[in-house]
Amino acid sequence: MFETTYPQLIGLCTGTLLLTSALMVWRHSMLASIRLLAVQGLALAALVAVIGVQKGELEVILVAVLVLLVKGLGLPWVLAHESKATTRTDEAPRLNPTASLLTVALLTILAYVVSSRVLARDTSVSAHAAPIGLAMVLIGFLLLVTRRQARSQLIGFLVLDNGIATVAFLTSGGVPLVLELGISLDVLLVVMILYVFAGRMHNKFGNTDIDQLRKLHD
Amino acid sequence: MAPSLSFALWTPLALPVLFALLSLTVPSPRLRRLGPIASSLAVLASGVILVVAALHDQVPTLGGVLRADALSAYLLTVVGAIGLVSTWGGLGGGGHSQTPARWAGSYDGLISVFLAAMSLAVVADNIGLMWASIEATTITTAFLVGAHRTGKSLEASWKYVILGSVGVAIALLGILLIYAASRATGEATLSWLVLSQPGLPLDPALVRAGGALAVLGFATKAGLAPMHSWLPDAHSQAPAPVSGLMSGVLLAVALYAILRVQTITDAVIGPDFLRAMLSVAGLLSLFVAAALLIRQRDFKRMLAYSSIEHMGLMAIGAAVGAAALPAVLLYMLGHGLVKATLFVVSGRILEVEGTPTIANVRALLVRRPGLAIPWLVAMAALVGFPPFSIFFSEVGIILAGWSAGMGVVVGIALVLLLVIFASLTRLTVALTIGSPHDALDHTPPILPKQVTPRATAPGDESDADREATVLSRREAEAGIDGAGVVNGVAHVADGGSGPEPFPMTSNIRVAAPFPDTVAVTVVDVVVAPDRSTHGPLLPLVLALATCAVVPFIANPVGVLLVRAAAVLGGAH
Amino acid sequence: MRVGTGAAAHAVELTWAGIGAPILMAVLQLALFVFLAPLLIGVIRQVRARLEGRAGAGIWQPWRDVRKLLAKEPVHAADSSWMLSVGPIVLLVSSLLLCVLLPLVGTLALPLIPSDLFVIVSVMLIGVVALALVGLDGGTAFGGMGSSRHMTVAALVEPTLLLSIYALSIPAGSSTLSLIVQTRLQTPAVIISPVSLLAMVALAIAIMAETSRLPIDNPSTHLELTMLHEAMVLESSGRDLAWLELGSWLKLAALLGLLGNLIVPWGVLTDFTVPGLLLGAVAVAAKVLALGTALSVGEVFLAKARLFSVPELLAGSFALALLAVTASYLVA
Amino acid sequence: MNAVQSGLVVQALLALAAVATGLLSPVSWRSRATGALCALLGVAGIVTGAAALGGANGALTIPLALPIDPLVLSPDRLGGLFMIVVSAVGALVSLFGIGSARGAEASRTSWAAMAVFLGGMQLVPAATDVVSFLLLWEIMTLGSTVLLLADHASRSTVYSAAIWYSAMSQLSFFFVLAGFGVLVAATGGTGFQTLATVPADSWPANLAFVLLLLGFGGKAELVPLHVWVPRVLPEAPSHVAAAMSGAMVKIGVYGALLVCVRLLPSGPPWWGVLILVLGGVSAVYGILQASVASDLKVLLAYSTTENMGLVFLGLGASVLLRSYNATAAADAALVAALLLMVSHAAFKTTLFLGAGAVAHATGELNLDRLGGLGKRMPWTAGTFGLASLGAASLPITSGFVAEWMLLQALIHGARLDGEVVSVAASIAMPLAVAVLALTAGLALLTFVKAYGIAFLARPRSRKASIAREVPWVMRVPLVLGALAVVGLGLMPGPLAAAIAAAVGPVIVPDVHTVGLAGVSLSGIDAVLDPGTLVILAGLVLVPILVIVALGARRHPTRVDPLPWAGGGSRLRPRMQYTATSYAEPLVRVFDDVLRPSRDVEVTHVGESRYLVEKVHVEQTVSDVIETRLYRPVLNAAQRFGLAARRAQDGSIHRYLGYSFAALLVVLIAVSL
């Protein structure tokens, strides 16, 4: 029963991941982005859980719980908390929505092309979905490049990270728990630091517009 | 034997963490500031012990996670040595002056943690662990870069964290792909030892993609173009010892990661792909460094771009492969030591001059020989003059490059190196050489009140040996032929007294020892040159001496380099 | 064609033919030319005077001038150095050496110092330099001007001079003048070959420039704008002037003698005999005087070229010489 | 330990001792102690070089940490010859420095750098492998750069000189490095013996040849790599300039010989043509610039370019002729080139030291302000005069012998046994002779000007009028240098024989000593014995002297303040010809090459259009190659540098964009 639904579940999860990523590019509202991020975290956790059930490994299930806690609930909550207090306004990204979405499409195609070459030998269901992860990485990067607000960049970074995690789970069924913990911790710390810096930025400049960070140049 | 030395695998991790905790708790700032030095010493000592082990054909391991082959041992020593130079040399000030007091403890603690993370990165056998510890360095150094807590340092740290984390994230993606490929060995692993064995049935496509992404990611931390963008900002804003550590250690460790990844991919897909990639990255780095050094204005950014240049050349060495690896490894040590020295000195110059702009400093050799001389010696080493080891590394890489059939790459590299050399020379000369009068506006100089003509005590040998640094030829003739001694000379500018101004050239002695600030406030006057080194000189001397002596030690340094290179497949 | 001598030939042969005869010939050459040089100038001036319808001072006037100058005290400027008195002597010695070394009376070579043209040119240049320094040492504007112009011309002449020598040396396979003259004597066809003619014209122009004759310099002018040689000797007097004049005249005579022997090599002593020696002396004297007359006649019809058109003339002669050399390789 | 080995060790130790003395001794005896040690270092170099030239073998091995062959110092005969030349110059220069170095020139740094410079320089010819060669080469460069900076605090011109010097040195270094790299890649070893196994006329050999020629040519001040020379040598302290010009450029020549004689001995004809062209252009351009220069040191600096051009001309002729098997002429050209190299070391060192003495005595090097020094500084004037003769290639000096031999080689080169060896040679040789002749002629003018304006006539400035002769410690090297110029000129035979031995064993020039130490080239039927010529001149001189002596008794020379005054009165020293006016006709003749900039300003009297009150003429001759070749490149680089800043404009989005682009490129590359 599970064997038949497994591909569909994987497809559902990865589809949600890609959809949320694309929507994040589309929507400029900070709050919407954070909600999408939360959804993405949940989808990722679901994906991990599906893989864990399929493999029957407890360790992977535990990782799924970890992902749920950190990416589905923790980080969005922190971001939303701060976000409410400071910025509710929309930001004007460096690329207009149409162009962004077109770029997303192109990046997704690229991800598929690359994956088809790289994962040519791997015929498993999960490997077929791996391009989604790569696409998320690229979309996350696109967010980083185009967003002007410190927190938007943070979100872009998290999307990128989610993408990497997606690739990891889809290609190799996840990394050992210890390592996953370490990686999660690192990501968490990075987010924390960026968070702290964003706070300092707000204190110093009154807002968190990245564009004003142009003092250091040649 | 082996277990007896494996303690040296955890000491470089545990002791710095311990010292970090002490730094946070000890109230005395003096003691606290010894923490990073102690950490460096711990790392250095562990490194030396592991080197001894490596030279006796031992490979200490610990729990299957930590492992120190010759390469790891060597790099641990490099980390320790450069850490020592940076932290000890940084004692003179620099980092602390602008750091709020309540952060001072965490500043020292973070340096220790940073050292521990670096040590972990080089002794970790697991690529994932290596990745995590390199990422950890981003976290620790982020605060160190922002230690000054100014707008600019905040900007630098933001850029550093964003660009660094994104880069390292890409590396993670690559590592995960390699991990996926490793499933073909039966059990998925990230053990470097396992993966670097030749003849593994790994999926070439996966390994290629993984290797490429991992190298690209680590290239960010290694400061290779086009991922280098964070580097000039971070290096120029960080306190001097931190800049030295980042430039000397962090970049080298990132390159170390690249070398490790390269070994894995080379065994599966051959060297061509990464060779092309590293060559392009190396040349691009040289190009970026050359382009931005031509009209550089800031001496700390100048050093940062020079780091990019040297990393570029090391990347080319890595691209060359086995034959160039000993040279690359020696390069890491030489560049690290010299760059740490330079950053330490640059911190002192920044502190006493109050500006990082070259145009606002100038004539340092006349005004502050105590700072200018170490700077000049280190610059000579940096641009590749013998007997310093960078010369040998560069020559080694370039000769090996030709031999490896990379003549075009090496040729382009030489052209770019020439531009870089000329730019660095021009900037250094602008910073140090010349008379202070050239730097000033044409305000007519006045005699300082402190100057008392004809007051030389004939027996005062120590003062008598001062050299007349601001004498023109004719002035020198008049001044020295008379009494053989010139202590300080008041210079009267041209103008007013006809076509051939006759300078004031009697034996003039500066009566009181000048406080440092005089040279800045009484700008119009050549005062007694400031011979203070503004901080400990010994670490700088040690660093440069090491750099000059090491290339001539065939045993054990030569043996160690060959063995370390052999770990990466560079066996002859 | 190539007259080989080999290493053994350079060894000093302590024989009459090896040492005695050449030395005797050299002494004779020296004496002959010291006597002949002022006479040559006298002839040149006299011929010119007659052609211009003047009576002239007679052909012995230069001799009388020298005698007069030698009996006068030299006057030196206070700031001048020893160069004013040494320079003229150096010029004279260099000219005398020319008379010794050149194959004028005969082609007997002195041991160890064959009449190598490059050596001869260098010896001559020493005289040029000495004269130029004398011009400078006076400390006047005229001396410096003459010296400057003189050296400029000398510098520009040198390529022509050496290349024409090169061209002449090719048939003989050596730059030794005595061998060149001998070659021309043995195979007269060489003399009228186009290569030789080109080279001779170039050499003649070079010699005119070196000896400060028209059209490069006007030997009888004292107009400041036209002076080269005369400007340099303006500050010299007495003995110094005598040496300078004699040295310049000797140079002219010796070079005309060389030119004569190259154009008409007959009469030159090749194997030592006393009659041959006398014949050689008479022949070379005749050649020199004839050339001098021709020179004088030519100069009547020539105007001095502007200083800055001199380089064009010299460039032309240089082109001729270069043509001569390359032609002798590529045509022959 | 044999003579050579112990000699090398002694040199290394003496160099270190001199560095230590320079750094540690107090100013009161620093110059004396360090200078003496440096001079000893030179003597040690001469002895070692002599032993090596005599055929003694000995090696000094220094281990390296990198897994390449250890450094081996072991001079062969050729290296020995160069070691002698370079060390001898070093010794003279050090002695002179004891007296001349003052103020910043006698600082710790300067003396230590002097020892480093000399030590590195005289050991370069001992290198037997690429790495040690490059190592010592760079040490030499480093030492000279530091020395150049000695006066940085008092003259702002040092600034640009230092930059030019180090950049051009590095350019040379990179050329050499690249050239050696090609050979190392082709042969698989770093020892010179291994490099020599590269197949002739293969592409690595050709490429390496061009690169090495450019590298060594740069050090030897060849056009167009000479641009540092006119900036650097005038700025360096005189004794340092003497060492650079007298010795350091010889290392460039040594490198070229290493290539043409040792590493790649059988090159194709075009190599020879390339060297010839490079040398010929340098010779003419160098002497043209020298002839119009007014600064004594600039004049000497450009003259070095000329002399080295002639050396390369000889070398090129040698390579070209050898490729056509015209061995005798090729050998003669090679020996001539080396003879010129040695004699240049002698006369140029003396000239630079002489210029140093002038600067020491007057503080002035502008010829337009000198004059009348012959009376005031007879020793300097005499030695400078003799050396000038050498530079002008006039008889009884070594320069003359060298140029004579080169001419002989050239005129005999195009033919072999009555047959024209090749069209190329028959065109190249006449042109080479023409170049040589023009160069020699202009050199004559240049040195007449240099000597005549500086030492003769009346002083043109007050400083020149109060000059005093320099102390004996500076006179000794001057006299020794002048003696070398004349001695080598009078006795070229033994020197030529030594040179013939040095270029062996493959090339064996047929050179013999004849007469009074004269030289004969048996292969091309040429003989020259300057000694006999001098005797002859002496014989001719005797009657003249008799007449002079007799005349002087009856009519002694009268001295008058202004005897003739050119027909005028109130003749002031400023009305004399200056160096600038002396060269003016030449500037006009070579207007197209020199491209002087003239600025004429006429001030009229009152409203008059015809009466002139004042005419101000300013003429400057700049280095055309610098302004036309380097300036545009440098300006473009500066503009590029300015534009490149925009790439690093501080925008994190741009930076992220770089990374993103790199990621995309890598992804695409991976999937290809």
UniProtKB/TrEMBL annotation, chain A:
<protein>
    <recommendedName>
        <fullName>Hydrogenase-4 component E</fullName>
    </recommendedName>
</protein>
<feature type="transmembrane region" description="Helical">
    <location>
        <begin position="101"/>
        <end position="119"/>
    </location>
</feature>
<feature type="transmembrane region" description="Helical">
    <location>
        <begin position="177"/>
        <end position="198"/>
    </location>
</feature>
<keyword id="KW-1133">Transmembrane helix</keyword>
<dbReference type="InterPro" id="IPR038730">
    <property type="entry name" value="HyfE-like"/>
</dbReference>
<feature type="transmembrane region" description="Helical">
    <location>
        <begin position="154"/>
        <end position="171"/>
    </location>
</feature>
<feature type="transmembrane region" description="Helical">
    <location>
        <begin position="125"/>
        <end position="145"/>
    </location>
</feature>
<feature type="transmembrane region" description="Helical">
    <location>
        <begin position="33"/>
        <end position="54"/>
    </location>
</feature>
<keyword id="KW-0472">Membrane</keyword>
<keyword id="KW-0812">Transmembrane</keyword>
<feature type="transmembrane region" description="Helical">
    <location>
        <begin position="60"/>
        <end position="80"/>
    </location>
</feature>
<keyword id="KW-1003">Cell membrane</keyword>
<feature type="transmembrane region" description="Helical">
    <location>
        <begin position="6"/>
        <end position="26"/>
    </location>
</feature>
From TrEMBL, chain C:
<feature type="transmembrane region" description="Helical">
    <location>
        <begin position="249"/>
        <end position="268"/>
    </location>
</feature>
<feature type="transmembrane region" description="Helical">
    <location>
        <begin position="23"/>
        <end position="44"/>
    </location>
</feature>
<keyword id="KW-0472">Membrane</keyword>
<feature type="transmembrane region" description="Helical">
    <location>
        <begin position="313"/>
        <end position="331"/>
    </location>
</feature>
<protein>
    <submittedName>
        <fullName>Formate hydrogenlyase</fullName>
    </submittedName>
</protein>
<feature type="transmembrane region" description="Helical">
    <location>
        <begin position="82"/>
        <end position="105"/>
    </location>
</feature>
<dbReference type="InterPro" id="IPR052561">
    <property type="entry name" value="ComplexI_Subunit1"/>
</dbReference>
<dbReference type="InterPro" id="IPR001694">
    <property type="entry name" value="NADH_UbQ_OxRdtase_su1/FPO"/>
</dbReference>
<feature type="transmembrane region" description="Helical">
    <location>
        <begin position="117"/>
        <end position="139"/>
    </location>
</feature>
<feature type="transmembrane region" description="Helical">
    <location>
        <begin position="189"/>
        <end position="209"/>
    </location>
</feature>
<dbReference type="Pfam" id="PF00146">
    <property type="entry name" value="NADHdh"/>
</dbReference>
<keyword id="KW-0812">Transmembrane</keyword>
<keyword id="KW-1133">Transmembrane helix</keyword>
<feature type="transmembrane region" description="Helical">
    <location>
        <begin position="274"/>
        <end position="301"/>
    </location>
</feature>
From TrEMBL, chain D:
<keyword id="KW-0812">Transmembrane</keyword>
<feature type="transmembrane region" description="Helical">
    <location>
        <begin position="478"/>
        <end position="507"/>
    </location>
</feature>
<keyword id="KW-0560">Oxidoreductase</keyword>
<feature type="transmembrane region" description="Helical">
    <location>
        <begin position="162"/>
        <end position="187"/>
    </location>
</feature>
<feature type="transmembrane region" description="Helical">
    <location>
        <begin position="78"/>
        <end position="98"/>
    </location>
</feature>
<feature type="transmembrane region" description="Helical">
    <location>
        <begin position="270"/>
        <end position="288"/>
    </location>
</feature>
<feature type="transmembrane region" description="Helical">
    <location>
        <begin position="133"/>
        <end position="150"/>
    </location>
</feature>
<feature type="domain" description="NADH:quinone oxidoreductase/Mrp antiporter transmembrane">
    <location>
        <begin position="127"/>
        <end position="413"/>
    </location>
</feature>
<dbReference type="InterPro" id="IPR001750">
    <property type="entry name" value="ND/Mrp_TM"/>
</dbReference>
<feature type="transmembrane region" description="Helical">
    <location>
        <begin position="655"/>
        <end position="671"/>
    </location>
</feature>
<feature type="transmembrane region" description="Helical">
    <location>
        <begin position="527"/>
        <end position="552"/>
    </location>
</feature>
<feature type="transmembrane region" description="Helical">
    <location>
        <begin position="300"/>
        <end position="321"/>
    </location>
</feature>
<keyword id="KW-1133">Transmembrane helix</keyword>
<dbReference type="InterPro" id="IPR052175">
    <property type="entry name" value="ComplexI-like_HydComp"/>
</dbReference>
<feature type="transmembrane region" description="Helical">
    <location>
        <begin position="110"/>
        <end position="127"/>
    </location>
</feature>
